[in-house]
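Hello forum,

I keep getting stuck at the same step: I have a sequence, I want structure tokens, and every attempt I make locally crashes halfway through. Rather than fight my setup again tonight, could one of you with a working pipeline run this one for me? It's a single chain of 199 residues.
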Amino acid sequence: MSDLLAVPRAFGLPLAAAVLLAACGEDIVLPPPTQQVTALEVSLYALTGTDVRTPSAYNMIIMLEIRTDETTEFDFAFEIGIDSLLGVGTAGDTVAVLIPRGALGFTPDGGLQLASMPFDSILRAPLSGYEQLQPTVIREGDVVLAASRLQQCNFNVIRPRVAKLRIDTIDLGQRSVAIHMVIDPNCGYLSLVPGLPSD
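Reply #2:
Ran it on my machine without issues. Output:
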């Protein structure tokens, strides 16, 4: 395993994860939504082999690209490397990956999953199925669902913020990725349809 993924892992899941499981029922009350589900264009640069001043990670809470040398407040990062060193294969091929924070040694909170449906067909994000500890290999055209770190939305509701990502361009020379993202900035809501969410 590479040094990138060999950072000592945080011990245990946050208490919030246990509360999340209890709050996953249908009889929950969310605060009224105040923000539109938003489409964004995101550009990230690999964690290695790029200028430290370029953003390599994304913070879904504040909806901004993040420099990992300045903060650990992010939900996923981007890297290009050898699959066997990244822990996602054994062939020695160069791959592009999105890395959940848990795979970088931080508390495994939030995560990523490849979608099986076309981007425009995904109207609502799932609450489960997110990979928290392994990178997700991406290719141009792939669609990825992302869940942020857990947020307290209401007294009894703790959920992530959610987004769907379409991988538009991976530039191996520039070591960068261009992502079209639709994100729901309202805490607890799962809608991925532009506009004010209803659920």
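Residues 35-184 form one domain. If your local run keeps crashing, start a new thread with the error log.
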